[in-house]
Amino acid sequence: MSWQQRIEQTLHHRQQQGLLRRRLAVSVSPHASLALGEQHFTHFSSNDYLGLSHHPAVIDAWCKGAQKWGTGAGASGHVTGYSPCHQLLEQTLAEWLGFPRAILLSSGFAANQALIFALAESSDTLIADKLMHASLQEAATLSPARYRRFPHNSLDGLARQLGATETKNRLVITEGVFSMDGDQAPLAAISEMCREHQAWLMVDDAHGVGVLGDEGRGSCAQQQIKPDILVVTFGKALGVSGAAILCSNAVAEYLEQSARHLIYSTALPAAQAEAVLTSIDIVRQQPEYRLKLAQNISDFRTLCLQQGIALTDSLTAIQPVIIGDNHRALAVAQSLQSAGYWVQAIRPPTVPVGSARLRITLSAAHSTEQIIGLVEALHHAL
Ligand code: PMP
Questions:
Q1: Which residues are in the Aminotransferase class I/classII large domain (predicted)?
Q2: What is the ipTM of this complex?
Q3: In angstroms, rounded to a whole number, what is the distance separating the alpha carbons of residues 215 and 280?
Q4: Is the distance from the beta carbon of residue 107 to the nearest atom of ligand 1 less than 6 Å?
């Protein structure tokens, strides 16, 4: 089959199965407002959990940063792209999250891949939760290491995999908060199991950092564990973009030698690093954002319960409503849109077949009235 035929056939199949993906050019503004052309919505689909992407101080830091450092880093950090501002951000992250070192990458996707590709050799084993992020799944599949998966959040499954593998170097990979389900990994038990089996633990806390734990230190701080490697991203609760790998001195130096996404890619702009530094300041010093988010999550769950809307056990900002069928998930999302609420329908392969869902995300930026309105609209749409 030619490329042209294959492409056309794939698009046709995806269309028929209700799986065609589209990017729409939307304008997001403060207070969870979203405009698509002339139409206006309240959105419940962003990972901007604290509303910091429109915080005046974060915007100001970015603008002043651009004036000071220019708009682009101009090169990889190994050439001229690493500034005192990048260095300060790494030091701040390391101190905040309690690790010897932090290494900045331009996205969470790149950070996960950089780490796995740099670390894993053919004599090693990667053992990962089945629902871990696509960036990790792909890196683990393509890496020369042996790759084993355990059922989502199953301690028995993890124990079986640890018992069944004998390679010297084993890296257990999980997430703090799972991106499509919002549930949390039992990190304390996983960490203990890794210690017993002398395996390293890597936690991707893209959805936990900034939101959970004392001073927003994330899932690991909340569950009082220290993994060997922690990946945090700046595009979610911190409201910017970019990521960092938190690790030991030796791992950081090793990544500086061998992480290709670090060495062969333009560093994130220093202005962006300035914005992230300001976000971290806000997260650490102003717990009211986290408290407002917690209140919004609690209000949403209580209102859904009152309306008989079935939710999962998630207690985080990610509150999926499982629909099952792809077409129905799209129809419910469409009906919410007609009522003025923008909620993304998530379908396979992002989530398992038969578990299409509305991925509702709450933010400190939502007002109580917006949440009441969403639940009423949901009640009518389901
Ligand atoms: N890890 C997890 C768990 C994620 O949900 C995401 C974003 N969807 C990433 C990593 C990738 O982060 P980024 O958007 O910064 O590339």
A1: 41-378
A2: 0.99
A3: 9
A4: yes
